[in-house]
Amino acid sequence: MAPVVFVTRPLPDPGINVLIESGFEVRANNEDRPLLREELMAGVQGADALLCMLSDRIDTELLEAAPALRVVSNYAVGFDNIDVAAARQRGIEVTTTPGVLTDATADLAWALLLAAARNLGAGERLVRAGEWTGWSPTQLLGEPLRNQTLGIVGMGAIGQAVARRAQGFGMHVVYCNRNRVESEIEDSLDAEFVALDDLLRRSDFISLHAPLNDQSRHMFNSRAFGLMKPTAVLVNTGRGAVIDEAELVNVLRDRRIAAAGLDVYEFEPKITEGLLTLDNVVLAPHLGSASTLARGDMVRLCCENIVEVLAGRPAVTPAPG
Ligand code: DGY
């Protein structure tokens, strides 16, 4: 019998033909919407491999419902939606898509940083509303970049790509990370390793790239916001729950920080009330990896991981840990 692969969402080019060509029986959700929990539970029954999205919760209950499962291939680099320990305990490999979306996500972080720093969201709304009356010497003044300090929280591949781009803007980079990165990388990025509180106090811009886990959940809470500069701009293209979103609304409303650019949300796709009406926040719909190149490479990598594991070979990109 051909191994069964369950795919939870339609994927962009080059698509999942390689799975069919590899002789697998592919069962796929063909509707472009997240599966309901019961649909996901039903779908994994009898599956040897699962190609899932960051919106699919892969926990013990689900793994128990899929006794034949050998690999969970996540269409994302983040994997906080998966109980990796529970999967590995059952001999199930978990894979992610590192590397291929690094540039796309770093580019989007910069798009948000620039948009938030220079009031692009508010400016666009003004123009679209037909309320712009012409150039003004005082209108929508933003924050400068040159000679400012960019703080990067999480100096993995994406954090490093964001830091690399900062050189073009003439910024000083400080970072915090679980471990200090190699000195050659620090030197090439001209980046200074600091403690989180130091980063919060010194940064004019902060970009978040830490994975979501018990340590990072609500890392940006009232205490952290209290240490930030009132002119600081916060950008998040990682995971929403790294920020206490209710508190973010308070500090943005009271101008205790200048602005934010968000691509991810604590209760995604629900947006915390307040964010929608504030003018000093730019909101994107989780577009970090959404370039044709990155999303295509993510499909390839997900399929390759499934082919390798079902052939009894090591995964190409196993989840860390
Ligand atoms: C990821 O890969 O973790 C992004 O959030 C979606 O591509």
From TrEMBL:
Residues 111-288 form the D-isomer specific 2-hydroxyacid dehydrogenase NAD-binding domain. Keywords: NAD, Oxidoreductase. One of its GO terms (cellular component) is cytosol. The keyword NAD applies. One of its GO terms (molecular function) is hydroxypyruvate reductase [NAD(P)H] activity. Residues 5-315 form the D-isomer specific 2-hydroxyacid dehydrogenase catalytic domain. Pfam families: 2-Hacid_dh, 2-Hacid_dh_C. PROSITE patterns: D_2_HYDROXYACID_DH_1, D_2_HYDROXYACID_DH_2, D_2_HYDROXYACID_DH_3. Signal peptide: none annotated. Gene3D superfamilies: NAD(P)-binding Rossmann-like Domain. This is Unannotated protein. The lineage of its organism: unclassified sequences, metagenomes, ecological metagenomes.
